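### Sample
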Amino acid sequence: MTIWNLGGINADFVYSVPHIPAPGETLDASSRDFFLGGKGANMSVAAARAGSHVCHIGAVGGDGRWAIDRLTEYGVDTRTISTVETETAHAMIFVAEDGENGIVVYPGANRAIPEKTLLQSLTNAKTGDWFFTQNEVNLQIEGAKFAKETGLNVAYAAAPFDADVTSQMLRYLDFLILNEVEAEQLKAATGQGPADLPVKDVIVTLGSKGATWFGARGETHVPSHKVTPVDTTGAGDTFTGYVIAGLDRGQPILQAMQTAAKAAAIMVTRHGTADVIPSLADVRAFSG
């Protein structure tokens, strides 16, 4: 089957700093790196490296050809990415010595995806394929509604969190993933906890504490693997991409989560974003 991912594509500028800057504080960075990023791109690369056929639906500016080339190199089908007049999105990522990060994003082309790009892409989808999206882009609700009406499975990562958009998305979803802060924000907006939502499968990620699945079996926890983190950027996206790939390949959700937990553990031991997401071979060799 195919995963159709309506997602963001960023140029990530990563700065190594002693700690995350406080308000009014100026810091010297010890290094600066440049990576392909964006939650959508990260998830597409993760799902592709996990063995799925992924068509990325998105947009870059005229300055973004390099991003399309890298996605192609990493196994993502890029024929559904448009080039628009707005510049490619970019992010400034500050990574502290303990591995924690702070991020500022300029959305750029991610919020200018043409509706015709979305609709033309999904007309090629087949019943049983997955449609997947996040909140970095425009057209999430339109995409989810169209996908649901045409027989696709619909998955959604509620980040960056937007209570209004997330509330509107719930009616179309088969799968929802969000972190524990976002779960609390959604409960505050809707009055519903993860177990109460009208979604078949809900996963709440808990960082170093693992992730919890709320589904037909009730509440099931999958622990994380103990590693020494150097950079947590992209770990959640890696986990999500691997889970979606597992579901796309027909794995039970618990098995998909266990594989994804290994991928996320490897990811936090590496500096970078999409460019360093582990392959399925890396995950199978992981013994942590």
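The mean pLDDT is 95. This sample (Ribokinase) is used throughout the tutorial notebook.
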